[in-house]
C-alpha cells in the first residue's frame, strides 16, 4: 500500500509567511514604509469574520501594516464604492481586500471592478483575470496560487501530467486550471454536469477538488499515486470542518494528499501576504 504523505499546508504556509516577514523588514528598512493591507468587511457573517480575523492575524505576523474596516450591513452601495475609491487614492495602502460575500444590496461585480487593479490582492479584478488568461503580468488569485505551491512542494513535475480540476468557479476551478495549463499539464475540468465523475478523476495524476460537497471524492475515484488537493471547506454533521475529499479512503491510494483543515486554507492566506508585497513592489509608491 502506498499511503499518501500528508501535504502540510500549515507548515508550508508558515515558511512562506516567514519569508514575507523578512521581506517586510527589508522593504521598511529600504523605503521607510511597511507594506499595508486593508481588509474590508460588511455586516456580521460569522464565517467572514473568522476569515478576516485570520487574514489580519497573518498580516500582523509578517509585520506588515494591516487595517481592518468593518462596515455595518446597512452600508449603501454608493457609500461603499466611495470608500474603495478613497483607498485606491490613498498612497499608503498597497492592497485592498473586500471580504465576500457582500450583503445582497451591494453588487459584488461593481465592487471588484472598483478596486484599483494594482491593489487587487485577491486577483479578482477583470484586468488581473485577463492577465492570467492572456499570460500577461498580473496578480494571481490566492487559492489557485497556493494550490500550485503545494503541488510544487511535492516535487511533482507537471509537464505532460494529466491534471483534473473538479469545479469551475471563477475564484478556484477556472484559474487553477489555467495555472496548471501554463505548466504544461494536460488539463480536464469537471463540474456538476460531468457524466461519470469517477471515470474522469481516475485519470488524474494531479487531482484538485473545489466543489463544496463533503465526501464527494472517495478512494475508488483516485488513481494510485495521484497528488490530491482538497480545496473544499464544509461542515459535517458534528459541525467539524471537512473537505470535499474523503480523506480516510483516499489517503491509502494517493501519493500526497492535503488535509482539511491545514491544507489549502492556510496557503490561501500565505499567498495573500505575498500578493501584498507584490503590490507594494509593483506600485513603487515608496
Ligand atoms: P462554487 O460553488 O462557486 O463552485 C462549485 C463548483 O463545483 C461548480 O463549478 C459546480 O459545478 C461544481 N460541482 C457542484 N456539484 C458537483 C458535483 N456533484 N460534481 C462535480 N462538480 C460539482 O464554489 P467555490 O469554487 O467558490 O468553492 C469550492 C469549495 O472550496 C467550497 O467548499 C469553498 O468553501 C472552498 N474554498 C476554499 C478556499 C480555501 O482557501 N480553502 C477558498 C475558496 C473556496 P457547476 O459549475 O456545474 O455548477
Q: What letter string, H or E per element, gives the SSE order?
A: EHEHEHEHHHEHEHEEEEHEH
- What is the CATH C level class of the largest domain, in words? Alpha Beta
Please give the domain count.
Answer: 2
Whole-angstrom Rg? 19 Å
Low-confidence stretches: none
Side-by-side strand order of the widest sheet: 1-11-8-7-5-6
Number of helices: 10
Q: What oligomeric state is this?
A: single chain
The name of the CATH superfamily of the largest domain reads NAD(P)-binding Rossmann-like Domain
Ligand catalogue: NADPH dihydro-nicotinamide-adenine-dinucleotide phosphate
CATH topology of the largest domain: Rossmann fold
| Shape call | globular
Short description:
With 286 residues, the chain is α/β, with parallel strands linked by helices. The chain has ten helices and eleven strands. Helix 2 (46-62) links the parallel strand 2 (36-42) and strand 3.
